[in-house]
Amino acid sequence: MEKATQPKIIIAIDGHSSCGKSTVAKQIAQELGYIYIDSGAMYRAVTLFALRNKLAADEQVDEQALIDRLGEIKIDFRLSPENSRNETYLNGENIEEEIRQLPVSQHVSPVATIGQVREAMVALQQEMGKNKGIVMDGRDIGTVVFPEAELKIFMTARPEVRAQRRYDELTAKGQLVSFDEILANVIERDRIDSSREISPLKQADDALILDNSDITREEQLDWVMQQIQQMISA
Ligand code: CDP
């Protein structure tokens, strides 16, 4: 009952790679009955398209060729009946697993620097949020996609902590990965994401900072839910 009477808001979660944005965003969406959108998955889907079509290799991207083929890319999210997860689809194919693997991670930041790619993704993201009641995570959600979002959170953690979490996640799935390679990828993506010309990763002036290096997931969720309740009842 309570959920229906509260006004729906937009919650924007931005921050560094692998600091658990999607974990907290999914938890919030579940608590509030909101839609959760992983904007990074959309850039990852474009990257997978580029890799499959030989428009990207060796951490280089053929920008013009990818721009010319953007019209062939259709991305959507569908709720999995098996695990209630919102899974990413590229042209009708479920690519949720494949976009989390290292080849995509190694090419996604250069793809995400391309202006036309960003324009297309931002338009899609704004369309998804037009009825509010949405939690979206990414790099530019509070600054570019929804600058009017009622609640903005900027998440971070120390690079070694983030690399360890990503390492644990991938090895739990049975992938053979090296910690050093993951740490290098985390640091390199931070560098590209923060220094790119278009929509760089930066904290919105009105964002609340959450550094979760030394707190548990439960403590983190409690803190975030408190901020939301204060916001909604203000
Ligand atoms: O989950 P993780 O932090 O590893 O990254 P992600 O959210 O899946 O995003 C992958 C990459 O997409 C980031 O490193 C950014 O380069 C890019 N991205 C972006 O530019 N803008 C967004 N709103 C979301 C992701």
Give a structural overview.
- The chain is of the alpha/beta class and 234 residues long.
- The chain contains ten helices and ten strands.
- β5 and β6 form a beta hairpin.
- The relative contact order is 0.21.
- The mean pLDDT is 94.
- Cytidine-5'-diphosphate binds next to α3, α5 and α9.
- The site of cytidine-5'-diphosphate has 16 residues, from α3, α5 and α9.
SSE topology:
Blueprint: H1 2-5, E1 10-15, H2 21-32, E2 35-38, H3 39-52, E3 56-57, E4 60-61, H4 63-68, E5 75-79, E6 86-90, E7 93-94, H5 102-111, H6 115-128, E8 134-138, H7 141-145, E9 151-156, H8 159-172, H9 179-195, E10 208-211, H10 217-233
Helix pairs in contact: 3-5, 3-6, 5-9, 8-9
* Total number of domains: 1
Q: What ligands can be seen in this structure? A: cytidine-5'-diphosphate
Q: Major sheet: size, sense and barrel closure?
A: 5 strands, parallel
Which sequence of SSEs, written as H and E, runs from N to C?
A: HEHEHEEHEEEHHEHEHHEH
What keyword list fits this structure?
single chain, 234 residues, alpha/beta, Rossmann fold, 5-stranded parallel β-sheet, 10 helices, 18% strand, binds cytidine-5'-diphosphate
Question: How would you concisely characterize the structure shown here?
Answer:
This protein is α/β, with parallel strands linked by helices and 234 residues long.
